[in-house]
Amino acid sequence: MSLSVIVPAHDEETVIGHSLRRMLEGAPGDLEVIVAANGCSDGTADRCRAVAPEVRVIELQSASKVAALNAADAAASRFPRAYVDADVEVSGEALAALAELLAQPGGPLVASPRMVLDLEGASGLVRAYYRIWERTSFRTEGHVGSGLYALSREGRARFGVFPSVVADDRYVQQLFRLDERATLHDHCFIVRPPRTLRALITRGGRIAAGNRELARLGLARRPESADASPERSGVRSVLPQLPTRPRLWWPFLVYCATQAATHFAAERKLRAGTTHHWDRDETSRL
After folding, report:
1. Which helix (H) or strand (E) holds 59?
2. Which domain holds residue 60?
3. Under a CB-based contact definition with an 8 Å cutoff, are residues 6 and 84 in contact?
4. Of 23, 55, 86, which closes a domain?
5. Quick one: 50 and 1 in the same domain?
6. Predicted pLDDT at 277
7. What is the pLDDT averaged over residues 108-125?
8. Dmax (CA) of the chain
């Protein structure tokens, strides 16, 4: 089973070696891994080359995730095609299952394994926030992306180059109807969210600004073709659960307050024109 894996990486030498080794364990025989090291000032590229000879590294001078995605996409030669953030942990077995699913005629066009949040070391407020986030319709209805998504050949043909936007995963997800998406519940990938509330708000502000950028550029799809953004759907989808679950009341207040803070953080970014600046969370990379 063939598969191309594209990994955009900017100054990720502390985590990318482990991520790549996990991908190669039990991976499909015809696996192509391309790392697009963009604007790196550390040893990311050398660390990738040291993992295995089959890892191909493309180096770009500027720090741009979109440029990295497009450069690696142009170099890739296999389908299906997976796009994986450098700090995400996914096994070769999960990638093989994705490749098999997306190669089936008449199958889904976009898919990902089940996402698991590693909250070890996260503050109580961060844990409370994600307790609600996991219950939103954004997470429970056709969620793919947020660090890893894979496209069939037909799915990748739905758009050309990646547009110059921050929310590339959101852009891709909303191109597909709910019945065109799939989640592999028997396999997972691990994401490490920010460990502090301040870092969570900073990251959330960038995500919210990216979602609004899609709307401003006319790249946001209609609700009937894809789910609403988490900013609009999060609170509404959780409210009916609250009357019978009093233990969710405090986490819900934390979630709402955090969403309000990310709204203001997004507004500041948009006004300052810093939406496209790298704003990486360092608390989850310690």
Report:
1. strand 55-60
2. 1-86
3. yes
4. 86
5. yes
6. 60
7. 96
8. 56
Does the pLDDT of residue 133 top 80, yes or no? yes
Cα–Cα dist 60/66, whole Å: 11
DSSP string, 41-71: -SSHHHHHHHH-TTEEEEEESS--HHHHHHH
Q: Please count the structural domains in the chain.
A: 2
141 and 252 share one domain = yes
110 forms beta bridges with 151, 181
Say whether both 168 and 275 belong to one domain: yes
Would you say how long the chain is, in residues?
Answer: 286
CA-based radius of gyration for the chain: 18
- Is the pLDDT at 278 greater than 60? The verdict is no
C-alpha–C-alpha distance, residues 234 and 130, integer Å: 12
Predicted confidence (pLDDT) at residue 228 exceeds the cutoff of 80: no
194: tokens are 């920010």
Residue 55 sits in the same domain as residue 116: no
147 and 114 share one domain: yes
Supply φ then ψ for residue 278, to 5 degrees: -60, 125
Closest to 154 measured CA to CA, from 175, 178, 184, 171: 175
- Spatial separation of the C-alpha atoms in residues 216 and 267, rounded to whole Å: 13
Relative to beta strand 81-84, strand 148-151 is: antiparallel
Q: How far is CA 264 from the centre of its chain?
A: 22
Show the beta-strand stretches assigned E in 161-221: 181-191
